[in-house]
Amino acid sequence: MKVWITKYALTDGIIEAEAKDCGYGMIETVGKYSNYFHGEGRQWHKEKESAITKAEEMRQKKIASLKKQIERLEKMKFG
Asked: What is the pTM for the complete model shown?
């Protein structure tokens, strides 16, 4: 079956791969990212639209986290 991997979305983008179902929400992929992924809807998706939604959510969370980190750094004073 064709799946879209979002585990690496913020570094490598959404990865389209062929996979076989291992049961319990786990899949095994072949190719460059030959690996096991678990958590349908978190690390992998059956539909491209679902993967895009998850990747966008991950991106927004990362941006918010980085903004908080920048705020903390800007407030730091030395000497």
From this structure: 0.85
